[in-house]
Amino acid sequence: QVEVVESGGGLVQPGGSLRLSCAASGSIRSIYLMGWYRQVPGKLRELVAVISGGGATTYADSVKGRFTISRDNAKNTVYLQMNSLKAEDTAVYYCNVGVSRQGVYWGQGTQVTVSS
After folding, report:
1. How confident is the model at residue 93 (pLDDT cuts 50, 70, 90)?
2. Are 5 and 108 in contact (CB under 8 A)?
3. 10-12 and 110-114: which strand pairing?
4. Alpha carbon separation from 70 to 9, 10, 57, 79, 102 (Å, rounded)
């Protein structure tokens, strides 16, 4: 059993910053990918950023230069540093964890609202 828990969401003004955290726990041999997705009502969930076990990163074009994904392999934790936030970044952000030879797991989501 694997549990994925996000934290760090909240209300921030345009141009502000937030740092999201996601910790995976339970029976885990190794994690090959950890990523962040976001979703707004009526739209598909979209990838924001993903990081491999070796540290390779991929970002959505809309967040390049503003968001940074990182991970602490020893803690099975992934972070998303979000800077220069825009109103269009408002969404529920979900953490996704791929566990080797086990499966893919999702967190419950954390709300990020960018508004004046």
Report:
1. very high
2. yes
3. parallel
4. 17, 20, 8, 5, 22
